[in-house]
Write the structure tokens for this entry.
Amino acid sequence: MTPFFYDSAIEQYQFSESHPLKPQRLVLLRALMDAYGLSDRLDWQTPPEIDESALRRVHTPEYIEVVRQLSAGAPLMDAHRWGFSPYGDNPPFVGMWEAALAYTRATVAAACAVRDGAPLAINITGGLHHALPNRASGFCIFNDPAIAVHILRERFERVAYLDIDLHHGDGVQWIFYRDPSVLTVSIHEGGQWLFPGTGAVNELGEGDAEGTSVNIPLAPYTDDAIWWEAFERVVPRAFERFQPHALVLQMGCDPHSLDPLGHLCLTAQGWLRAVQWARSLGVPMVALGGGGYNLTTVPRMWTLAIATLVGIDLPDATPETFEAHDRIPTLTDHAPPAIDPTDLDYARRFAQQQITFWERYWG
């Protein structure tokens, strides 16, 4: 069975009651997986403890100590320098050290499993792709996908990172921006409309790594067809050129039309095509979660993704034993989002510009 790492301490990862990142999404996910019997078909494991050396693969010792102090409730006058502010995206909270370690050690365990021979390992609580070496960002304290890439590089010569989140995978991109052994690919809403404001096609990597940073920014109101055309015409070619030996897949499900933080208009099944494509590669894979802020979309999209990765077909109608069956009656969406034709036409033309850039760049 596929190893599936989960540390229940992640359910304490909550910046505030009003913060959009709600641990209830994981509680509902577990309930839905249990109702389908999917949990029983995975090798569910609690990840072992890790020491700071795992964090130092990506983060500076000074930043790690700041997180530890803020987690203990220590007042730091310069907390904003490290990305923490009571009025920003990342308000410090007591216990955040333990909560952030929960998702990080699950990713470390998944990456070690794949490094040591597992074809697939999953940490759906991971995928916090915005954190920088010395700064929290975008609800992310530690950058676990980047740590996973480092671990995979202990065995695999070339590692790819594929990010299908609503937001640009900026932290991972910048960490490997000068590393020709790592391909970072991100398909996301463009930075002119959405945090973190990066992810343009001309962010290509530097030095020997030029061309190993591949971005596909898209416009608001991008639907399934536009998103998939952009994906299909750019991502496979990037992978063919790079020939990765292993993959870290970040499965943020906030491109969904109902997500409150963005403007892309995907359905669950439209988004799932990228997960299906990643599985079809047949390379060793660490699969992570990511963004997703609508409590009716996250549980079903991640249930679909997990089942897809392990090759299990699930009935579309959610089990009546599922506690949120009335609010989440099906896994897929049965009606596409209504989009103004003018907005859809702009989204289509904008996507074509990105596709054209890559076709010309590669020649």
